[in-house]
Amino acid sequence: MKVFRITTEVKATKTIQYVVEANSEDEAKELISSGVEGDDGEQIYEEVDLKTEKIIDIKFIEELED
User: Fold this and answer.
1) How many CA atoms lie within 13 A of 59 on its CB side?
2) How far apart, in Å, are the Cα atoms of 56 and each of 11, 34, 62?
3) Residues sharing a CB contact under 8 Å with residue 47, sequence separation 6 or more, in sequence order
4) Which of 4, 16, 43, 58 has its Cβ near the most Cβ atoms within 10 Å?
């Protein structure tokens, strides 16, 4: 028996919430879309689409004794 490390890539959709101080809804949207808020959001959900998973790397680790 052999042991392998397999790396895959998969598409995911993250839902992020922000708390933003702004004078209007349009200004608040602009702060998010322009990147001003950067990584200040909180991830509240992540959905992974396993149908998109593909192998991008495989590495042999070791041979196991029987």
Assistant:
1) 5
2) 13, 32, 20
3) 12, 13, 15
4) 16
Query: Quick one: tokens of 64?
Result: 């196991």
How many angstroms separate the CA atoms of 12 and 63, rounded? Answer: 34
Place of tokens 């708390």: 19
Evaluated on CA atoms 13, 15, 20, 25, the torsion sign reads positive
Distance between CA atoms of residues 61 and 6, nearest Å: 10
DSSP 48-59: EEEEEEEEEEEE
- Look at the block and give the residue holding tokens 């052999």: 2
pLDDT tens, 20-61? 999 999 999 999 999 887 778 999 999 999 999 999 999 999
- Which two structure tokens, joined as six digits, stand for 57? 């790397």
